[in-house]
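Subject: Protein record for review, amino acid sequence with backbone structure tokens
How to read it: Take the token row as a discrete description of the fold.
Enclosed: The protein record, placed directly beneath this head.
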Amino acid sequence: MAATDKPLDFLWFIPSSGDGAYLGSDDLSRPVDPGYFREIATAVDRLGYSGVLIPTGVACEESFVLAADLAARTEQLKFLVAVRPGTASPAYYARLASTLDRVSNGRLLLNIVVGGSAQELAGDGVFLGHDERYDHADEFFKVFNELLETGKSTLDGKFIKAIDARLGLPPVQQPRPPLYFGGSSDAAIDFCGGMIEKYLTWGEPPAQVAEKVERVRKSAAAKGREVSFGIRLHFIVRETDDEAWEAADRLISKLSDEAIEAAQAVFAKASDSVGQARMVALHNGRRDKLEVSPNLWAGIGLVRTGAGTALVGSPKTVAARLREYQEIGIDTVIASGYPHLEEAYRVSELLFPEIGLGGPRNQIRSSFGERQVFGGGGHGGNVKLASAS
């Protein structure tokens, strides 16, 4: 079976630090609101997405707590939740993970976030250099994984000391929930090759993604392992290419040059992330050359940290671009769009049919087989045209 024959695993994003219709503006913005996150989660659960990524950071709601709330209100949705080594012990994180997997009936995915901001890490009590953070994470997840898989672990390491650690209750998933990870530095790729199940890249041009995929494959193979691959992207999908590009322009239409300069200055000062540097290099803070690869638009990265690119176009165009990533080895997409509730509908309704995904789950019949045309919601219902048989 060719890589493009198998449908993508398609997740959405919970914007737990806030949402809006325009980047760099408070017009039509949506502040942090747990009720709104529930709306998004229940919508994407019904619309056919397999799961959601819940971000982590000082500006975000705590991911484990938010995932527990959303798990109680959804049926099939999986939750990709961050584990940040150094912010708590591996034994404590193992208890959190096991309980969340149990209360969600096996719907937990784990996202390793080592951290790319020395300033934020210092606030969490983590004072390690860039490469040392991965040495620390390696010891952390040895204990964490052993606890989830066997219920016990002991390690007298350089960074982690766990003597006769115990986990009383196992997770639902066996041997444990899968580990996801994203990182572009040599230290990150060496770490993940021996540890994770799925490697995530931000949305770089296909040639750059292919280069990273090959590096991770070699790292994993050297340790006798195999790793699968996912990509984190924003989406601007409309019925035509022109409409999609108009929507992209509108998204940054209220973004000032001063706001871009301020954001780029913060990125340069606060982050030692190689992945963040690669995102910035796609646009270098300039808004005049934002299509960095066919239909790959870097406008979001002018002010957003982390994933800063979007696929822009009609359903057929975006599906073609996704197939290029699938040919490289990408089998999972973690998607988002602004605002997240409306764009979740657009991506499901417009793009999913083009990429072989089923769309809304558990739809109830709305007729006895007649073809219907939406009639505006009047008392007489829809217009029945002819038999659908």
Summary: DSSP finds twelve helices and 17 strands in the chain. The domain at 3-387 is CATH 3.20.20.30 (TIM Barrel).
